[in-house]
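> call design_seq(struct)
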């Protein structure tokens, strides 16, 4: 079984995702309760920021572990990991 870059911080990542999940449930309640539009938008921005922070943390760990390991070993796997990382960064920048 492969060990990925986030393995050492897996529990921290799960905790962050659970907090985001709670924020999304709170957002649903706000809509159900007819909360003020700006308050809903403010909460939406907070959720987006939390997810972006999670994604950047995961990307950092991927670069330090998976990509660095592949580059150290060289070959096609290294090129593939760098390409994957570049595409992931591109997706994050566009979102």
């Amino acid at each position: 079984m492969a060990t990925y870059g986030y393995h050492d911080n897996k529990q921290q990542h799960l905790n962050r995702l659970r907090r985001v999940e709670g924020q999304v449930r709170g957002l649903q309640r706000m809509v159900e309760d007819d909360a003020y539009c700006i308050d809903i938008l403010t909460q939406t921005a907070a959720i987006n920021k939390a997810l972006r922070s999670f994604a950047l943390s995961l990307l950092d760990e991927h670069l330090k572990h998976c990509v660095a390991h592949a580059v150290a070993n060289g070959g096609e796997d290294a090129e593939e990991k760098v390409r994957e990382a570049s595409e992931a960064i591109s997706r994050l920048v566009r979102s």
